[in-house]
Amino acid sequence: MKKYDINILIVDDDRDICDSLKKLFVIDKYKVKAITNPIHTLRELNKQLYHLIILDLKMPKIKGEDLLREIRKINSDISVIILTAYPSVDSAVQALQSHVFDYIKKPFKINELRDTVRNALRSKMLLLEPEEEMNLKIGKKVRVLRSENRLTLRQLAERTNLSVSLISQIERAESAASISTLNKIVTALNISLKELFEDI
Asked: Which CATH class for the 130-197 domain?
């Protein structure tokens, strides 16, 4: 997924923070919406798909912890980064129980928040480096070709003299395959390296 396909929602009652974070992440080429009234958050989540939420904990009308629980009812998998000027052990524990990606104290360093956003998106495989994206495409193609040939991982391993574990890691993009390894795999699948890389 490209950065400009990634939607980020910022929820903070401080308009200055919303404006500055929106500008920052728009410059980074994400699609960004900022909400200063937390009551509108759930309606926005039902209206639009978001990949990441940056959420302030202390806001009027609704506590961030309560809003986070409601967010999780709508989307249990969305990445959430908590910002708070009032960190506490209780709020940190509640945040972790709600599976937030990170809990950041205000004031924060812009580059640290940028890195946290990037890491949160990468953890969901939404933002990939070119090499990771290539590994993902190769792995998917190997898995599809193996299925088309009706081969189990073990059968492909026996044909290639590679370990089941290595082939599995290649298919899940957990390991980059060498040309030599890929050559063994394509030979076992009766195709050429050129065919493997078509449409990748």
From this structure: mainly alpha
